[in-house]
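To whoever is on call:

I kicked off a structure prediction for a single chain this morning and the downstream step that reads the tokens threw a length-mismatch warning. I double-checked the sequence; it's 339 residues and nothing unusual in it as far as I can see. Pasting both halves so you can look.
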Amino acid sequence: RSTNSRAVHPTMLSPYVPRMPMIGLGVWKAPADVTAQVVYDAIKIGYRHLDCACDYGNERAVGEALKRVFDEGVCTREDMWITSKLWNTYHKREHVLPACQRTLDDLGLDYVDLYLVHFPIALEFVPFEQRYPPEWTDEPNNAGVMQLANVPYRETWEAMEALKEAGKAKEIGVSNLTVQSLIDLLRYCKVRPACNQIENHVYLTQPKLVDFCQDQGIGVVAFSPLGAVSYIGMGMAEPSENALNDPVVVKIAKAKQRTPAQVLLRFQVERGVAVIPKSEKVERLKENFDIFSFTLTEEEVGELLALDRRRRFNDPAVYAKGWGPPGSWLAKHGYPIYE
């Protein structure tokens, strides 16, 4: 292993997903023109886990950063854990492998460490040459409507299993699945999902889902572990919902001589939940990464769990309403996958 891999040590690895670091860099919302530098900076700091996706539109930039760190000897491919995700338009069996291969080509890799089904939502296929990433609707910039495809999740998962068999993905997993959806998947799968990536923060702790996954040996990865901060600027959350300003979080941060963000991230690690915070600022990247030099007491974890409001910020039941054909159930209800 590279001598520069000091960042990955046993206390930082997931107890549920072998080799997966408990903290990674999320690249959702990172503009393509700054992504390469942000990823490079993060890896230089010590990050060895990157959370990517076709839908983020910046995998080529991530690939540029990976080539740079490999060429410079900062780390090796084997030192890194790279996650990507299958988009909704590629759920048909015959589209899963080409979608994964497009991601691999953009990243400049032979394999990903983890490939997830991004949403349990199947949309009609959009060819690469027509639009990539294809987004949610049948028009660019999500100006059209969602075109639902009649593809059962089982078909998609069987194609995911074939990806693993072919060596394109070392592990396969799911994202945004509920307990019932997982129970169904576990009844027929030949390869169990390595993890379930879900929105999770102190205002949406989802203890039953986390406990179920961990009881089943399925790792949990929390996206948006800092809560509303990613959504306020998008009009999907109110400033008053910012957990970084929550009095309980601030109190614990002062007691630990840490920042509120570090407390929110450490809270998840104490639960055995991996985190993928994002930032474009070097100092914030360093701050988010430094969560293994302190711990929270059982009482403090309990105080943070008690903040749960069941407040979900990333919910297609809300934002998909504008993408339904007029008069359709989609236009009335969005796509309520969590109900």
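Update from on-call: the warning came from a stale cache, not from the record. Cleared it. Sanity check on the structure: Confidence is low (pLDDT under 50) at residues 1-10.
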